Amino acid sequence: MADQTSYVRAAEDGVGYWKANLRLIIISLIIWALVSFGFGILLRPMLAGIEIGGTDLGFWFAQQGSILVFLVLIFFYAWRMNKLDRQYGVEE
Amino acid sequence: MEQFTINLLFVGASFALYIGIAVWARAGSTSEFYAAGRGVHPVTNGMATAADWMSAASFISMAGLIAFTGYDNSTYLMGWTGGYVLLALLLAPYLRKFGKYTVSEFIGDRFYSPTARMVAVICLIVASVTYVIGQMTGVGVAFGRFLEISNTAGLLIGAAVVFAYAVFGGMKGVTYTQVAQYCVLITAYTIPAVFISLQLTGTPIPALGLFSETTATGAEGSVYLLTKLDQIVTDLGFASYTEAHKDNLNMVLFTLSLMIGTAGLPHVIMRFFTVPKVSDARWSAGWTLVFIALLYLTAPAVGAMARLNITELMWPNGTSGEPVSVQTIETAPEYDWMLTWQKTGLLDWEDKNGDGLIQYYNDQSDAMAERAATNGWEGNELTNFNRDILVLANPEIANLPGWVIGLVAAGGLAAALSTAAGLLLAISSAVSHDLLKGQLTPNMSEKAELMSARIAMAVAIAVATVLGLNPPGFAAQTVALAFGLAAASIFPALMMGIFSKRVNNVGAVAGMLSGLIFTLVYIFLHKGWLFIAGTNSFPDTVDGSLFGIQSTAIGAIGAIINFAVAYGVSMMTKDTPQEIKDLVESVRIPAGAGAAAADH
């Protein structure tokens, strides 16, 4: 099994990996909330001036835009995390 | 050929397909059954999960709710997709790394407490039974229409079919059956939408058609579909389609409740336990959302276009012209659908003022009162239009060929049956495996375990059927309550189990119980105790509700209470033992995951 030094290094790597992961999660969740609760609901009046297909941008975000952003977010997260896994040597 | 025969043919053929696949790829053992997702590509797994998750609520009910309310019900669209972001970022990879098969096993191990596991099982059963009630509502509508019988008779026949379907066994767990169900479901949803989008806007993609100009050119040239829709519904005194009418607080809380609930539903989470690798759990969540989005991007178009078609059928000469006559409804072929749906008791009209015409307008609107008085109208004469019939009636409303109508019948039943059967399996295994064998009677024989599973299933479906006869709302609204319950109980416990090392056994149990009880009591206060009509203490409206929050949105508050109580109680009690801290540490890192191990 692992000796003391490599155990410590692994633990430090683990801390860095987890911090990087949390940062990525927080950024992603800010975007997640911005497009749905933000553009779709609360900030809709601010976007009222931007017309799209007979209505405003907020309506589009509420009915379609947010779903498309959710998709991009999940795939972006999966791609970044798989890179982080390799970078910190914690992949399977 | 008669429409009735065509419907039976399509429904029969699709069932034969599922059974054929189930027999061909039958799971031989318990572990095979549970590991159905292993060794399956994330794309295939995503498709199966999408079929598992999209139910009568998504297929039959949601577009109808959007159609008659417009923008306000965008909450369903955002809520039921946004949850996958939470699932992919906060739960799926870690639960996969943990490597057991059920949600309650994770909660029991992480919070080192059989009590926590038992509480999780109870939360799971409460949420799942509520979910099944919503499915039964949808099943009743579908069977009522396609057998051309009353809604109640349809519900009873549906209950028998669902029971047989679930008892038939692991069929539900076979990934390839679900892939077939997804294909039937998405084709059935998309084809009529494409036809209607072409008719109305000339655009073959419904999602784009929603924001396109209509093909019919009026005096002022072509107009956008949504502009036209806004115009005709406000002409009749209804609330405009694209504007907001609900307060922001309720919209945000309702959306949040659906999102958190999605990430807390055991039958969805389970699918991510069994993918081959941690990285696959992340990809799988993405692919699942891709397949769900195909339906969800089409749904708002289906809703808006159906609303336009229905309103124009009621007012064939424009909203200021003469409305449709009773005689036309009874004789003209394009109104046949109204006669067939009338038989289910879910659609009705009445010529209140005896002028031989059917005036469809909002009789609650002050603006319409004057016009009604001048013309001698005595109230809205399209007296009943159940929201749950819209998607199933949609191809008939748009006068599409008979085979499309049959296809939609098969699709609606695929959606409702697959989810209802899956939930029944989840309930029965929770009762027999987690509750009885795991806690109360550990020495139970395998035969007795199987028997108790069947009994639990029968009890669950009987309860759901009885409550489904007088459902607390339209299918999607009832399902939304189930999501609220899952949001308030399961999700916070799972998330804290991964992201906090400090939350301990006492805290988790206190949190889950307070979240569940608060939400359940709040729902019962507004919907009636055990959903029995008339026993509610507060009217189920925004203004009349206890905290000014609708019962469908309260799950988000329940979740916040769960987090707060769990954290507070944990801080006041003993720290978690070292081996639990190590367990959390190991769950956070993908390395060394190995294959999922069954505790069976």
Q: Look at the structure and give the mean pLDDT of chain B.
A: 87
* Helix percentage of chain A: over 70%
Classification by helices and strands of chain B: mainly alpha
Distance between the termini of chain B: 52 Å
First-last Cα distance of chain A: 18 Å
Descriptive report:
The complex is a heterodimer of chains A (92) and B (600). Chain A has two helices and two strands; from the N terminus they run αββα. With 92 residues, chain A is mainly α. Chain A has one domain (4-87). In chain A, helix 1 runs antiparallel to helix 2 (57-87). The longest helix of chain A is centred in the N-terminal third of the chain and has 39 residues, at 4-42. The two termini of chain A are 18 Å apart. The model of chain A has no long low-confidence stretch (mean pLDDT 87). By secondary structure, chain B is mainly α. Chain B has a domain at 3-310 and 392-471: Up-down Bundle (Sodium/glucose cotransporter), CATH 1.20.1730. In chain B, 68% of the residues lie in helices and 1% in strands. Chain B has a two-stranded antiparallel sheet with strand order 1-2. The longest helix of chain B is centred in the C-terminal third of the chain and has 39 residues, at 402-440. The model of chain B is unreliable at 33-37 (pLDDT under 50). Classes of the chains: A mainly alpha (92), B mainly alpha (600).
